[in-house]
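Appendix B. Chain record.
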Amino acid sequence: MRLIPRKATAALGAGLAAIALLYLSASALVAKPSTPLTGPAETRLSVVPLSFDPDAATKTRFGKLTYRGGLNLFARSVHFGGYSAIALDASGTTLLALSDAGSWMRATLGYDGTRLDSMSNVRLGPILGRDGKPLQSETERDAEGIALLSGDTNAGSALVSFERDHRILQYPFTPERFGPPTGTVALPKAARGMNSNQGLEAIATIQSGRMKGTVVAFSERLQDRAGNLIGWLIGGPAPGTITIRRLGGFDITGAAGLPDGGLLLLERRFRYAEGVKMRIRRIAGSDLRRGKLITGETLLEADDLFNIDNMEAIAVHRAQDGATVLTLMSDDNFSAFQRSLIMQFALP
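Structure tokens predicted for this chain:
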């Protein structure tokens, strides 16, 4: 089921749109777990294979990317959903995802050749606070981005960005535990004035080149006076503010570093009159300079005639065949009107 119908009639008007917004928000709020997980737990998962174009199931080329399969995910746990941040190990088989309800998920991805065709061994657990207990309030649980610092998706260390209570924390993790945090990344001054639900939406680290090790953070919709989107280079050799040209009213929902030192941005646009749209942009490493207005290259743009939902999470790994593979996941907002999807594309 799509997020909402692709086209609404003019007769609906602004009043019915507002009612629909309240209805969807209320549905999501009721379904979102009010209490956190108390500890790690396994859950059963069912998957349905997903073609990207429902009208052309065998088509694989979309924009500048090659589709490598996708899955519609159904789990038995009320804590499954809301996935806004993901990371993969180097083999592309172990997935670590964070939910904006304050939980983590670890799962095994399976392939038929190069095509994603299964997810198994699903395990959920709570993100811990500084006191070693699961994060409690909705304000503090809203995890939106993850960037691995060391290790892999089984055990290591990562930066996690949160919105509402805007912060970036360093988290150690093991197969059975995520946290408590061991450090805090100081936010730029401009980041402290973000709206509660349009805050730190994406975080990534630069993997190579002159900016290697730099943390890149983006708000969902914080804009400069010209209406362009603001991000920050944190740490590294040249910290400072960067600006992403806002194209077509899209907002930033995810980011991932590329092996060549560049960056991928996942973007979303939602309007009641047109439904949801998704875009992936590639930013060259040479463009990541403070003070620069960056446009980048559009790799893919899709509306809800394709099999997309509220796409919020993106990760990159190098497949065995040498391809750079993008993994995307959707945040279903714990709503019956939306879906948890995972899909993969390969760069040219």
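Further analysis of this model is presented in Appendix C.
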